[in-house]
Amino acid sequence: MIRQKITPFLWFEKEAGEVARFYTSVFKDSKIKxxxxxxxxxxxxxxxxxxxxxxxxxxxxxxxxxxxxxxAVSFLxxxxxxxxxxxxxxxxxxxxxxxxxxxxxxxSEKYGWVQDKYGLSWQVMFIGDRKIKQxxxxxxxxxxxxxxxxxxxxxxxxxxxxxxxxxxILRYGKNEEPDNEGTIKHAAFTLESQEFAxxxxxxxxxxxxxxxxxxxxxxxxxNEIDYYWKKLSADPKAEQCGWLKDKYGVSWQIVPIILGxxxxxxxxEKSGRVMKSLLQMKKLDIEELKRxxxxxx
Length: 297
What we know:
Structural class: alpha+beta
């Protein structure tokens, strides 16, 4: 069984190893788990690094300046101690930009939102003595054309994935313009037993979701791949190499678990054939990739 079905996948411009070392130094109980080097990609030689931060996996890829991070997706870090927030803020804000200064707010005694030196957005929040099940929660912010669609999106995702739950929903009230009364101020939900959050924001923003942050869905069978592809893909132009965009503009990767094993093979001819085949696909075909791996074509 897959322990973490959905993994945040972060696209950096360069130096995946440097980025991985930075984040594993920021968060306690974190480590670099694996590094895979891909050759002959459209971006040349590319490193993919899997890291574990506070018990959760993230995948880092350095593949050139094609995409830039935006606050449309951020990562909320829940803390029981104010000292922990101070330490995280000091490290994450160095060379970065504060979006909401570290301070006291109506919803938290201590909270801050920052873009770190690589452009990735983090929210750190003191939650008192409440029990923390998952330390880091991906937060989706629906703005621009996607504004006021957070609740619709949550219900959609809950219909697609297993082990789901729509949790507490906090709505905007009267006199909270420009947001409409009843839209989502903050909502918690789980997909595959993993925690996510979402919000609407009617303020004018010059950003939205893009491929810099995608969510990798690890599949065991072709039937799984076919299912998620059919349910999630809404933009044929965005379909490439297992990547897709859903109807809200959020990017997903639908990948077989076995792909990682084939790409890490020490025989460069095997991994090279798989990589070449993958680059020609939209939805990934497990049997086709296996044939390439074995050299049966």
